[in-house]
Design goal:
CATH topology of the largest domain: Arc Repressor Mutant, subunit A
Helix content: 55-70%
Strand order of the largest sheet: 1-2
Number of strands: 2
Number of domains: 2
Largest sheet: 2 strands, antiparallel
Order of helices and strands: HEHHHHEHHHHH
Length: 217
Amino acid sequence: FKFSTYATWWIRQAISRAIADQARTIRIPVHMVETINRQGRIQRKLQQDLGREPTFEEIALEMDFLEEEDINKVRRAMTTGIPMESDVERRLERAAQKVQRIKRLSQEPISLNTPVGTEENSSLGDFIEDDSMPAPEGVASRRLLQEHMTEILDGLSERERKVLVMRFGLEDGITRTLEDVGREFNVTRERVRQIEAKALRKLRHPLRSRKLRDYLG
């Protein structure tokens, strides 16, 4: 299939419906179990190496939440005492918050760590029906999906982000036409189409799109 079709589908389905809590069935991505387990192993190893409880920032540096360039800059700042660049510091803080959220998830009384089948980490691939109150697993999945989507859209320019938000109704569920968006930005519909296409090309990057693929059944 063409990526543009795929991107349109997962933006509309995974974001508009899951974040707006319109979907009745929520899939928990199996990779989150692996992430929780991996973070636990990293935390225990750092605790042994450091002789103390590691900080969320220290754990984040060992996870795949930061680009290699950012990791090097953070380590250099820690070694030399030179202040980090504000954008690097902001990304580190966001990564540390993610570590904290994952740790909190692992401590919640839900079946995130319950193995299914013979493979130790082949768990939580089941769908959970939500007829009245949202299940804890569904709440966790939607929260993680929204966080991932926010991170992905942060990689776009402000105009690109707003164009996608309006075109696909990411905030209010109402999709806008090219003409609608063009009037908002005072540009032609063709210019809106170009901005949208450029934004979707950026979202095609594997490091961005792979974060959402596991949410799609």
